[in-house]
Amino acid sequence: MDVPLEQAARLIYPRVTIVVTSVDSVERVNAAPYSWVMPISFQPPMLIVGIQARETKTVKNIKQMKEFVVNVVTKDWAQKAVNCETKGIEDKLNEFGLETVDCEKVKVPCIKDAKIVLECKLNEIAHPQGADHYIVVGEIVAARKDESVKNQDIVMHLSGPDFILPGEEIKLERKK
Ligand SMILES: Cc1cc2nc3c(=O)[nH]c(=O)nc-3n(C[C@H](O)[C@H](O)[C@H](O)COP(=O)(O)O)c2cc1C
Predict the structure, then answer these.
(1) How far apart are CA 153 and CA 98, in angstroms?
(2) CATH (one of 2.30.110.10, 3.40.50.150, 2.60.40.1220, 2.40.50.140) for 16-160
């Protein structure tokens, strides 16, 4: 079955769901969910997030403060995370009942409920020719994982309102 080309990006799934926290110049915290995210370097450790090429709060904050935090979403706070997509709310965290705690290496706080946290300093914001998303490149300057987190708790985004939790784990031989 052919898929309309504007839907092609959705064939690369499931993708891990994250909330990016960021701050403005007076340290007001913003939070928004994303799932176009992947690592791109081990050394130095870096990741990229695909973010709509317009002045969203997240983009404005990251451009200005050059820092952001990736909070991996688990089942226990998934609905609150997705609620943070909402536009036009000044304090989404308060509105949706999410608390933050200070980070180690960046001024941006992380979500208290987040069990996997990657603190990032902005490396660059690239805009591939013609693309409707920026590539936001972050160098990971601190990373932590709560030992209680299970792979099955991590919320993966399919598309739209559809999500999935990882099920069966399999091992495959890797020929070196
Ligand atoms: C599960 C989920 C995944 C999303 N993934 C992305 C994404 O990868 N890139 C993107 O630009 N927007 C994504 N969005 C939409 C943003 O969250 C949305 O544009 C948001 O309003 C941005 O908030 P801000 O203006 O506070 O930065 C996603 C939304 C949801 C619910």
Answers:
(1) 18
(2) 2.30.110.10
